[in-house]
Amino acid sequence: MSKTRVAAFSVSIDGFGAGPLQDLNNPLGVRGLELHSWFFDTAVFKRIQGKDAGTRGIDNEIAGQSFENVGAWIMGRNMFGPLRGPWKDDSWKGWWGENPPYHTPVFVLTHHARPPLAMEGGTTFYFVTDGPESALRRAKEAADRKDVRIGGGVSTIRHYLTAGEVDEMHIAISPVFLGEGEHLFAGINLAELGYTTLKTVAGQNATHIFIRKA
After folding, report:
1. Which residues of the chain fall below pLDDT 70?
2. Burial class (CB in 10 A: 0-12, 13-18, 19+), 100
3. Strands, E assignment, 77-144
4. pTM over 0.90
5. How many C-alpha atoms does 89 have within 13 Å on its Cβ side?
């Protein structure tokens, strides 16, 4: 059965899913990359980078599972890039080079129209201007009974959570304090929304919490 899910989304101990002041040099905000150190060390991430090294074990296994059975992605414009306002041109193609790691259709939430962007490896970015519900509908159609993965950032995940659209969620709690940035759960009552903890797994460099909507 197809699911809408969040997977391998990293947060700090104090609940921040991104640091402040995102820009070209800080794609996840100041210190935001620290949240993902557990993932950057894995063999799964190294393989995405075209390398053979990387750690094995629980973190790597869970990282690999996050990519399984994904037929489409949704992300906010801030995850796609640091640019704001109308697109000046089509030169910005994301953070990931010519062969992004998605290999599926990716639906980018934005207020500013742009033609679809086809990349190497089967990734095509579609820029959705008529809202998150439209993006989810289109992603489900494109996924063809596979899962839709909500990639981020924080505001995008918060929208789909509060709308009750997320079926499952995997949070990787990294052992760092950010102190500021974008808080993932502030003001959201997950219990009232019907979410419950499914399991907790201790990895080498993160604690993995799996949440499911009843």
Report:
1. none
2. buried
3. 105-109, 117-118, 124-128
4. yes
5. 1
